Amino acid sequence: MQLYKNPFYLYVITFTIVIVTYQFGWSSLYPKLSFLLLLFFIVTFIVSLLLGATIDKYNPIIYSKIENTDFVKRTIIGIYILLIIEFIYTKGIPLLLVFSSSTFRYEEFGIPTLHPILATFTSFYTVYVFHAWLSEKKLKNLIYFLLLLLFPILIYNRGMLLISLVSCLIVFLLSIKKVKLKARIYIAVLVVVLLYFFGVLGNYRMVKSSSNEYFMEVAEATDSFRNSRIPKEYFWSYIYISSPLANLQNNINENGPEQIRVKDFISTELLPDFISKRLAKLIHAEQGEIVQIASFLTVGTVFARSYSLLGWAGIYLMYLFIAAFVFLYIIILRKSNKYYVTGISILSTFIIFNAFSNMIYFSGLSFQLTYPIILGIFKLRIKRFKFTLR
Fold first, then answer.
1. C-alpha angle with apex 105: 101 to 106, nearest 5 degrees?
2. Which residues of the chain have pLDDT under 50?
3. 60: CB partners within 8 A, 6+ apart
4. Which residue from 242, 239, 197, 240 is spatially nearest to 220, judged by alpha carbons?
5. Using CA atoms in the order 98, 104, 107, 109, what is the torsion angle rounded to 10 degrees?
6. Do 264 and 287 meet the contact criterion of CB atoms below 8 Å apart?
7. 354: helix, strand or coil
8. DSSP structural state of residue 93
9. DSSP-based three-state secondary structure for 225
10. Are 21 and 238 in contact (CB under 8 A)?
11. What is the DSSP letter of 34?
12. Fewest CB within a 10 Å sphere: which of 36, 133, 194, 282?
């Protein structure tokens, strides 16, 4: 059974990796994981395995090739025209500005409303074009893919780049019937290299330097890690992978809800940010707070804010909502849809990144899931229209 082909199994794999990484003990900031939190993961792991087995039996996830991707070129031209307009609007290219200006903030890049749509569509389309290249093995599709991958680099958005790469990795894994030893080695090497450069970019982003000393100091790296031969760039990956779980445990220890806030939970945790922010103002709802183990470590998995609003009920309800959403999405997304593989891959990435923050709220990823559905329906209607004309 290939566990990586099913989002429910990936939930188990992802949080298992996070929990194991947590045990490395490279930072003295982390609290000890409680029995109740570990019990929650055991319970949800069992439920996820059962749901995954149900999908495997009645609606198995399959990989299929796609053809006729000639429209890709015009789409990429359109993407880059809009990107150039954003460069003009911002008066610079973020990749250059971040190294040349101490006042530039990459979060402020882009034209309001346009940029979120452009960024999410580009990330979605990057995965689709990668699927097209795997399907047809045409050089032009590989070039198109690299051009799309350049987009998050130019706007210096590490999160977007990482999301796109993980989604493409899922597409690749779906495309192979069995992961041979050679492929496993390639994947392992790729992950090791990416995690290393993630640390390098992190240093430049934080202190405009290649030195790791400042980050190890503020993140309280233990003496055992400092004295080890492990490249210090990997401390960034360790912190980013495990600190959300540390924040979750810290909230369980210190941030139980004083009152049950159902309205706030529904409006701020179960809706994308572009809806939630507007709705919250209308109904006077507020997000739950995360008691952080350090000021610069702001996320606490998908569950931390839910706990601050509803306690343990919030954590379990959030899991059930995600599980129901994933289950229904797999059913709704038809295998005949040209964007089926792309949608499943992004859905898997959605599951993986929930280990770090609430990806329902973060429309930079959750909104990507709408494109396979919308474009699939649009294409189906065009086909029906053409058939009617005939």
1. 110
2. 385-389
3. none
4. 239
5. -90
6. yes
7. coil
8. -
9. helix
10. yes
11. P
12. 282
How many Å apart are CA 147 and CA 139, to the nearest integer? 12
How far apart, in Å, are the Cα atoms of 230 and each of 17, 235, 316?
Answer: 19, 9, 37
Residue for token pair 């031209």: 77
Three-state SS at 221: strand
pTM: 0.89
Q: DSSP alpha helices (H): ranges in 137-180?
A: 139-154, 158-175
Torsions phi, psi for 113 (to 5 deg): 75, -50
Q: How many CB atoms lie within 10 A of CB 84?
A: 11
Instruction: Summarize pLDDT for 6-42 with one digit per residue, the tens.
Output: 999 999 999 999 999 999 999 999 999 999 999 999 9
In angstroms, the CA 353 to CA 348 distance is: 9
Closest CA to 302 of 325, 274, 279, 328: 325
* C-alpha gyration radius of the chain: 21
CA-angle at 26, arms to 22 and 27, nearest 5°? 90
- Phi/psi for 219 (5° steps) reads -95, 5
Helix (H, G, I), strand (E, B) or coil at 313: helix
How far is Cα 8 from Cα 358, in angstroms, rounded to an integer? 17
- Contact by Cβ (8 Å): 154, 93: yes
Residue type, 340: Y
Cα(16)–Cα(37) distance, integer angstroms: 13
Contact 4, 13 (CB under 8 A): yes
| 260: nearest Cα among 321, 300, 292, 307 | 307
Residues 44/52, Cβ–Cβ less than 8 Å: no
Locate 340 and state its tokens.
């089926």
- Each residue's pLDDT tens digit, 307-324: 999 999 999 999 999 999
Tokens 């034209």 found at:
111
